[in-house]
Amino acid sequence: MTTPLFSFFTNRSRRVVETVTPGRTLADVVLPPQTRRTLEHALAQVRNHELIFGRWGLGERHIAGRGLAFNFAGAPGTGKTICAEAIAHELGLKLLVVDYAQAESMWFGETPKNIVAAFRAAAEQSAVLFFDEADAIATRRSAGTILPHDRESNLTINVLLRELEAFNGIVIFATNLAANFDPAFERRIRTHVLFEMPGVEERVRIWELQIHPKKTPLRADVDFRRLAERYQMSGGDIKNAVIKAAAAAAAESGPDLGKQIGQEHFERAAQDVLSAKSVMQQSLFEGGFAASDSVSQWQSVAARWRTAVVVALGLAGTALIAALAAVALTLLR
Ligand SMILES: Nc1ncnc2c1ncn2[C@@H]1O[C@H](COP(=O)(O)OP(=O)(O)OP(=O)(O)O)[C@@H](O)[C@H]1O
Ligand SMILES: [Mg+2]
Fold it and tell me: Do 158 and 210 lie in a common domain?
């Protein structure tokens, strides 16, 4: 049975919390050797979990901290989400995905309560709990809270730490920025898996994996190695380029039967994806300044308001004292 509060949110906004039956497996993921090794180490911990905490009795000795928490850190499109799915598949479990970035904005004022509900639902369904886009969770709690949002974030992290301590299952966090980790949060993460950008060999295999081996019509000139050597892209970029190339080939005139994706479609698509990405990064960079500007503007407005309130209270106090003195003088006469 699912928690009523939780079903309410899953029904209302499917994209914030979603239970996924994993379709993709580790065979669908191509990883640089170091990333693959750390991931396998993480999987071994999961597989030995029952042995250590069940048969060897450590679960009875250590009631708290029996769960397994992993952090998948890496640049966008390096395969963090598909790996979470593949791990759940490997373990024969469902994946309960919480889109954390979305959740924080949609659940404003309710985030801690819903975090608790997500852990409960994962326990009930024996699902792997996956916090996607979890950068906001990972960041340090602010010491001097000023904004209501900070206060809510701090409370959310405290609740999350408490839930993590009590949870007996598997939790995976995906983050793009792992540098600013909250130390208490970091202590509870068993393994950090760094998702590196794919090298040439991995890119060749990812290009090949993105097309259907039998159904996708490729022209004879297609050379994935050449594409892999020429364009330094993430797996996500390659996926986007393949779809773009297919769209361009399909839009050409003539009967569908004769349509094929050629090397020039892939080349152009790869260039488009990379240039769109550099435009995005530029505007994000500029947007970053804008965002921090607006935060400091908001902070200075808040500071001015605070000063005004203190002055007003001071004046009101002085007026009250003067009035009381006047009343006392009148009575004394
Ligand atoms: N290592 C990889 N091996 C195979 N395919 C990959 C790999 N990385 C990415 N892809 C392809 O790109 C798509 C997007 O990858 P995914 O969503 O897992 O990236 P991500 O690291 O979670 O990105 P983000 O940080 O933006 O959420 C996948 O569905 C898959 O098709
Ligand atoms: Mg992702």
Answer: no
